[in-house]
Structure formats: C-alpha cells, structure tokens
Amino acid sequence: MKTHLKRRELLKGAAALGAVTASGSLMSPRRAHAAGEVNWMAWGGHVEPGGIAEFYDETGIRVNHIAMNSNASTFAKLKLSGVSQYDLIEADGLWTLKYLEADMIEPIDLDSIPNVKANMYEQFKHIPDLVTSDGKMLMAPWGWNPTILVYNEDEVSEAPDSYEALLDPKYKGHVAFSDQHEFMWPIAAFLLGYEDPFKMNDSQLEKAKEILIKIKRNAPTITKGWNEQLRLFVEGTIWIGMSSPGRAYTVTANGGPKMGTNPPKEGYYGWIDGDMLVKDAANREDALKWINEIHSADYVATNFLRLQRGCANRAGVEKLIAEGHDDIVKANFMDQPEVAFNMKLIRAPEYPDKYAAAWNDVLAAT
Fold this sequence. Notes:
D-Maltodextrin-Binding Protein, domain 2, eight-stranded mixed beta sheet, 13 helices, 35% helix, globular, TAT_signal, transport, polyamine binding, Sperm_putr-bd, signal
C-alpha cells in the first residue's frame, strides 16, 4: 500500500517550504512581502504545511493558522473576545448554528467557489439545518464521521448491536471511554430513550450521568485522544468502544487485532465539520480563495490519506483511489457520502454549564 501522494514539483526540497511562524503560517523565501493574508482558526488535522506553502507561492497570500481545542472552548473564547481578528473559523455538526445565532458568521455561496462547485459531493451542499432559504450554506463541509461500535473480533465473539454492550460486566476493564462528552451523552440518552441528548433536563441529565459512570467503570482508563485509544486497542487492553468506522482499519494496520464495526440499533451521532466565513471578514476574498485551495483534489487527498475519515470532496476521493488507496477509501466510507446522512449531528448543549458540571462529575466518579 502506498503511503504518500506525489507532491507537485513546486514543493521539492525543504527549502521551498520557507519558514514556519509561531502562529503556524508558512512563507516562501521567494516572496519578500505577502500580497494578502487569511487568519484561519481551524482544527490542526486540517492543516497541510506543504499546501499552505504552495498556496503562498502561487498567490502571495499568507495563511495564519490558529489552533482549536474543542467546539465548546472555541465558541466560548470567540463569544468573549469576538471574531474580528479571524476570517475563517471551524466547527462540528450543528455547533455552526450557535455561531449564526451569535451573529459571528455569514452564509457562503458554495457554487461561487470553483473547486467546491466542481469537487464536492452534491449532498453536502444541502445539509438540513445548515442551508439558508436562498440556498447558501453556513459552512463549507470538509470531513465527516459517524460514531459507531468498534470491537476486537478475537475477544468479542458476536458483533455487538447495542450500546448495552458497553455496560456488559464481561467486558470490565476492556471498554473504551473517551474524554469527549459530545459523543458520550448520546450513548446515555439512547439507552434511556431520551429524544435529544443535548436538551436533557436536570432529572434526565442526572440519570444519563449515572449511565456514563457505569460505562466508565468498565474502562481501564479515560483516553484523552485518538492516539492513546489506538495504542490501547492495538495492545489488546481495550476490546470494545465507540469510534469512527475507519478506526477499525487503523488499529489492524498498526499491528493490532482484526476489528469489526457495527452501528448501534438505537441510532448514532456523528459530525460534519467545515469552514465558516466570519461576518464582515477583513480578508474575505482571500479567505474564499483559501477555501477554494483546500478543496482542490491534491490538498484533499493528501490530508485524508494522513488523517482518515469520511470526506465531502469527491475529487479528492477519486484521486486517492487512482493512487491505489481503495482500502482506505472503503474503510472510511469516503465513497459512500450517503452514510453521512444516516447519522444525527452533534450540537451545542442547551444548558452548557449544567452539562459541563455533569461531565466533571462523571470524570471524577470512582
């Protein structure tokens, strides 16, 4: 299996990459002054330094990347400090609606961006709740993933089809438990029969908290990120948990056991992320040019080969297949965009302070 995509000739040699600034932007030594700039608050996983350098070489526009921690902390920070210093910001799922409600973003005409118009799967231009009455989108979709059951086929003999498996005492010490509350509350809500995991009242939240504490007691540890969870799956400490479908492929590819996946019968949540245009952005035109660049087949294929997940960009997927990465494409459902619309989207809790306090109780429980 190939491990790298070919770069354009422009990127040959480390010298062509220029200097990396503290904020994460790259400059080519061939240009003394930037012709423009984009201040891009984005997930670190979306950043391809070579792509940023190439964009600068071709346009003179410098991209300044500002890293994000989480949906909740990023929104809280921007709500307090404002968004005027940024041009593009990112969010997952229906968190985008919070930014619209706070008057931080403006809709985007995706068909006015050439690479988006030509390369994006059509479904992603019409996501319910994220499209305006005049057909514009609140974000330019990038990646997506459902969060479903993944399991070690050597240790879990029958494919689990319910969240109940996470509570099964026979898996004590072998259940994955992640410090990602947005994906954990839905588990409890589904098991309790609640309609919306992000609109639970005090009584419901208390019962949901009890469910998550029980699941946590079946876990050997609380994982803080995917790399830690990957290691535990590979070494056989964790046998079962909630993750994206492509994680099963990644575990096996990294020397771990053969993994299976199954969507819970109760239903499941997931995310679609993307870039939002800041309202009255100072560098609006340059920001739209950057969106166009990252939706080129080259940038998409490079990024999704490195950080595998569902993809909103058909041209990037086709390039991966042409490069011989069919297995990665299929493992991550990249060629099945309809799967993205079988999941419910995570959103901001209606009572964020109550949810934060309840989650802290879950983490502190023994």
